[in-house]
Structure formats: C-alpha cells, structure tokens
Design a protein that fits this description.
The chain has 568 residues and is mostly beta strands. It is built from 3 helices and 51 strands. The protein has a 49-stranded mixed sheet that branches.
Length: 568
C-alpha cells in the first residue's frame, strides 16, 4: 500500500490522537500526521511575508560575520522567510547567538549553506509558527556532556517543523520545551529527517506540556546521552529513526565528549529511546515507538512513569549496557515522584544480540497496582535472540506474554505475580558448560500452550499457585526436566497437568521431576512422557507428592526402547 500523506490548509485545533487502548495503526497515524502538517501549513499560509537572502547581508566566506548575520535575523518581519544560500557563515558570541521571540519564523537553507556558531545556536520562544529546514548548523568546538549547549532550542511554541537539518558538536542537537500549562500545552511539533551527530548528550529531547509530536526519519550517531529523550509529552510518535554508532568509553576521543568529567553519572556509551520523569515531570501519555533501528547503544527503549506506551516493530542489535526494552515502575532518580505506568504493548520487535558480558534482559517489564485498575501490559510476537547468557523476557505483574520466539538465551523467561504466558516458542538456549533452566516460574503464573526445547531444565518452579498446562517440552539435558526449587521458598498449590515431555536420547537416565520433601503433598502433577522411540506414557497420580521424595522419577530407556519410570 502506498504511504501517501495528504493535507489541507484548514486549521483543525482538535487533532484526533490514537486512544490509550489502540494498537499502532499506520493509517490513523498518517491521518494524524496530515492534520499536524495541515495545521502548520494553515498557519504559514495565513502569515504573508517576503524572502530575504542572507547574501544581501553576509559574504559567506568563513570569516567572522556575527554583525551581518544578526542584522539578517533582525530584518525579518512576521512571516518572512530567511534564506541561507550556499556559503560558510561563521558567528562568534557567548550564549545564544540569536533568540527569536514572539514572531512567526521560517529559516530555509540551500545545500552547501553552513552556519557555524562559537557557543549556543538558535533559540525560539513564544511563537505560533517556526520552521527551520535544510540548515547545516555546527559548533566551532565539541561541547561536552552536561555543558548545556544546544543547536536549536524551542520553548512555548506551536506549529513547529524542524526538518532536513544537519546539527553537530553541541551538547543537545534539538531541544523542544512546551508551555507552562497542562491545560494549554504547546502542540503540533514535527522533527523529521535531520542528521544529528557528535553531541555531548541527546540528539533530540522533548519536554513538558507538549502535545502531538512527530519524531521521524532522523539519523542520530556519535552522541553520549540518550538518543531520543521524552518527558511529559502527549500523543508522541517516534518512528523510523536510526540510532547507531554512539560514543563509547573506549573511543580515543571519549574525554572530548565528557569534557574531561568522570564519575558514576557520566555515561559510558550513548543510549536509545527513553521516557522518564527525572525532573519531577507528570509523565508521558500515548507514546508510540515504532519501526526504529537502534544499534550498538547502551539500551534500546527505557520507559518509566507513563500512560499508554506502544513499542512495536523495532529492530535492536548489539545493545551494550542494560535491558533492551525496559518498563519499570520502581521509584528512582528517573521517577522521583513515583508516577505510575498504565498500559503498555511491546509487540513485533526483533532483538538480536546483547553484547554486555554480565546477564541482563532482552525485555524486562513490571506493572504496579494503581487504583485506576489500568496497570496491564502485553508482550507479544517478538523475536528475541540475545546470543548470550541473558534473560529473554522478565515479567512481573499483570502481563500477557504470547506468541514470542526466544532462542540462544541464558534463561528464556522469568515470570511472576499474575503473568499469563501462552503459545510462545522457546528454542535451545545459549549453551554453557552447565545450562541452568529455560523458564523460571515464581508465584501466581499461568503457563500454557508453550513449546520448549533445550538442555537446561525446561521448567523451574520456584513459587506457589501456578497453573502449568498443555505445554510441549523437548528435554535434552542432564538434570531435572521439571524442577520444584524450594530452596528458601514455599512451593505449593501448583497444578502441572496435561503437558507432553519429549525425552531425547541425550536425556535418558535423567530425572523427570525433581523436588524435596518440603513440597510433598502440596502440588498436583498429571503429565505425559514420550520417549525417543516415539512411545507415549502417561503419569497420572494426583497424590504423586504424598510420600518421601515421591516427586522424583528416574527415567530410563531399555534396549528395546521402552521407557521406565522409577520412584527415587
């Protein structure tokens, strides 16, 4: 289907957003995009102006042209277009080189036009129309982490379009702050197709009382902060961006990006896409992160304190420092006011390789119990291949996990406190000399209709009140296929029923079920075993845990291929 965006010049103050319970809808997103573009076009068309050529003021020869460029900017009246034609326009001034306040501003540049500033770039305030397109904006020297030097900064302004720009050597590339009022937020912001690189912190940061924001098709690289930072922004779409090749602590120029600073707070590698409230913000709402490529960064997507987040169809590779996709609700420096999470969907993503040496998670999500009753998450249809000793999915709370494919993980799933996991495919894990387990099940979990293959213990049950039914397990290991792990835990009131355990030749002579006397008489097991010759046997004994060590079955295959189960 062609992806054409049409828009009219009729201003519509009532832009329709996706609802909090809707999945990603490209047609509706295009409709919203069209409305935002239409609003911007309507404002632009309503304000007549002239085209002013920079060459009427400055030679563009790379010399210090501060006075001439200031005069060029000063000449603009409401609605005028400031045009940079090819040339090198250098300005020298401490602080912001120029602040546009309270007027409609359009700045456009032809290819080959470079604006070089010595300190801060361009600032826009209190405007109802801003456009900056095609400009190469760079700082003379590299600005470091936490130094507060920004290329383009917008505050308390609506109908903003920043597109096709090349911005480099600042702390932040583009920063947009909204209004001072939640009831009257700034709105209609598009940040599109910019090249943002060699930055001490964020390529893109949007903060505080902003509504209807599109961040799309940007190329971000060689930066040290978060790739895209979102705070207190509503109805925001982050789509088709490319985040890659961040600054690393092992780089020869790392000290240049840190400005020589050291300490635990100084990043070791640039990050991915994040939504947080570290400044005490109110939280983002209706956040859509779709079809981005995030490669080689500290993390993929990190979310905390939001209402409605949809992380869909993204590609993540070679994530270096922490979880690839993380949903957290714990109070921390990134959420000091403990803003609750409400409704998230993590769907259709491809996670390929976590390069961190110590274990972390490909997808990690937790819900919290709010009075609104909306704390629910869905993790579905993802392809997760960590290629290392990492968790595939860690989930804690009211979360539905379905239709995922997980392979080459240390532990494929670790599930707790209300999780429902169904119809997932778990393939052999990351092979170690002593593989542990494929799935950990703690308390109050429903685990049904899943397929598990591998050398590690198929299921390790470490809690109570779990229902484990209709799963197929192909066990290839040398430990227990299903293990009741009651070391310092209460393991009781579990039902394990109508599962099929396929015992491979490499698993002959191993324990089928393992436990200790502490769990005896407190669980129910009714299961089916199939040996490597294809014979099917049913173990049916609802009192299987009543006697000493009666949960242990040693499975052996005789010379004729017959399976024998012996209580130990």
């Amino acid at each position: 289907m062609a992806n054409h965006i049409n828009f009219t010049s009729a201003y519509n103050p009532n832009v329709e957003a996706l609802g909090g319970n809707e999945t990603f809808d490209p047609l509706k997103m295009n409709a919203m995009f069209s409305q935002i573009l239409g609003n911007i076009a309507a404002v632009e068309a309503s304000v007549p102006g002239n085209i002013i050529d920079v060459r009427n003021f400055a030679p563009g020869d790379g010399s210090n042209q501060s006075a001439q460029i200031k005069a060029f900017f000063d000449s603009a009246q409401e609605g005028d277009i400031l045009l940079f034609t090819p040339g090198h326009y250098k300005v020298v001034k401490s602080g912001w080189f120029y602040t546009f306040n309270g007027k409609a501003v359009t700045i456009r540049a032809h290819p080959g036009a470079i604006l070089e500033v010595s300190d801060q770039g361009l600032r826009f305030e209190n405007s109802n129309h801003i456009e900056v397109s095609g400009l190469t904006l760079r700082r003379t020297t590299q600005a470091g982490w936490a130094k507060g030097r920004t290329g383009i900064y917008v505050e308390n302004s609506s109908n903003v379009m920043l597109q096709n720009n090349d911005i480099s050597k600042f702390t932040d590339g583009i920063g947009v702050n909204g209004s001072t009022s939640q009831e009257n937020p700034s709105r209609n912001v598009i940040i599109r197709n910019n090249k943002l690189h060699h930055l001490g912190e964020e390529p893109i940061a949007v903060r505080t009382n902003l509504a209807f924001v599109m961040i799309t098709e940007n190329d971000c690289y060689r930066y040290l902060g978060d790739g895209i930072l979102i705070k207190a922004t509503w109805n925001v779409f982050v789509t088709n961006n490319y985040l890659h090749t961040p600054v690393l602590s092992t780089d020869s120029d790392y000290a240049t990006f840190t400005a020589g600073q050291q300490g635990a707070n100084v990043p070791k590698v640039g990050g991915g896409i994040t939504c947080n409230n570290e400044g005490g913000e109110t939280g983002a709402r209706s956040l859509h992160i779709h079809d981005n490529s995030v490669i080689g960064t500290a993390f993929g997507v990190g979310l905390i304190g939001f209402q409605g987040a949809f992380v869909t169809s993204n590609f993540f590779s070679n994530i270096r420092n922490s979880s690839v996709v993380s949903v957290s609700f714990l109070p921390s420096q990134y959420n000091p006011n403990d803003v609750s999470n409400h409704i998230f969907v993590i769907q259709g993503n491809y996670i390929d390789t976590i390069s961190r040496s110590s274990p972390t998670a490909a997808i990690e999500a937790r819900t919290n119990n709010g009075v609104e009753g909306m704390d629910i998450g869905i993790i579905s249809d993802n392809i997760v291949i960590p290629n290392g000793n990492h968790w595939g999915i860690i989930a804690d709370g009211n979360i539905i996990i379905k239709g995922n494919y997980i392979a080459k993980a240390g532990i494929a799933m670790d599930l707790s406190n209300g999780v429902v996991a169904a119809n997932n495919i778990i393939q052999p894990g990351f092979v170690t000399t002593n593989p542990d387990r494929m799935v950990s099940i703690n308390d109050d979990v429903t685990f049904t209709g899943n397929s598990i293959s591998g050398k590690g213990t198929s299921l390790k049950i470490r809690g109570s009140n779990n229902v484990i039914t209709a799963n197929r397990m192909k066990y290839e290991g040398n430990w227990w296929a299903v293990h009741f792990d009651n070391a310092n835990r209460v393991v009781e009131n579990n039902i394990i029923k109508d599962n099929v355990l396929l015992v491979s030749s490499s698993a002959t002579g191993r324990y089928l079920y393992g436990s200790s006397a502490f769990s005896n008489g407190k669980n129910v097991v009714i299961d089916v075993v199939k040996d490597n010759n294809g014979f099917v046997y049913q173990l049916v004994n609802e009192l299987v845990l009543t006697g000493p060590n009666s949960t242990r079955w040693r499975v052996s295959v005789d010379a004729n291929g017959n399976i024998k189960g012996t209580k130990v």
